[in-house]
Design goal:
single chain, alpha+beta, two-stranded antiparallel ribbon, 3 helices, 23% helix, globular, PHD-type_Zinc_Finger, Znf_PHD, zinc-finger, Zinc_finger_PHD-type_CS
């Protein structure tokens, strides 16, 4: 199939959004803000149908990423994620993904409140890959 992003043939990732016809290459999707979930049915979603956070989190002035200490967006979005347990820990997607890859499932938790279960479940849902070992 033809990729809806680069228009080249060989796309194999299909958006699982309701009635969405988009098909893309995994790397193209990652660059465009598509989300692939690395658990259960391994669903993927295009930029229009990707899961979003429903966390009520309020920033005080400008909030920094807990990992790199650089500014994050003013509200949860594709590039800025928030811990669902404490709603006080903010991260860049690339930073928390790196943390997940280094920590693996046994040690991956919110760096601020130390929550494991709620935090991991939400990160999985938002497309953060957390290795088993």
């Amino acid at each position: 199939q033809r990729c809806c992003i680069c228009r080249l043939w060989g796309a194999s990732v299909t958006c699982r959004g309701r009635r969405c016809p988009r098909v893309f290459h995994f790397p193209c999707g990652s660059e465009r803000g598509c989300v692939s979930q690395f658990f259960g049915e391994f669903k993927s979603f295009c930029w229009k149908h990707r899961p979003v956070q429903c966390v009520r989190a309020v920033q005080q002035d400008q909030t920094l990423c807990l990992i790199c200490q650089e500014a994050v967006a003013g509200q949860p979005c594709y590039d800025t994620l928030v811990c669902p347990a404490c709603a006080s820990a903010w991260f860049h997607r690339r930073c928390i993904q790196g943390q997940a890859l280094r920590s693996a499932r046994h040690h991956f938790r919110c760096p601020l409140c130390q929550d494991v279960a709620t935090f991991q479940e939400e990160m999985f849902r938002l497309g953060i890959k957390i290795p088993d070992g």
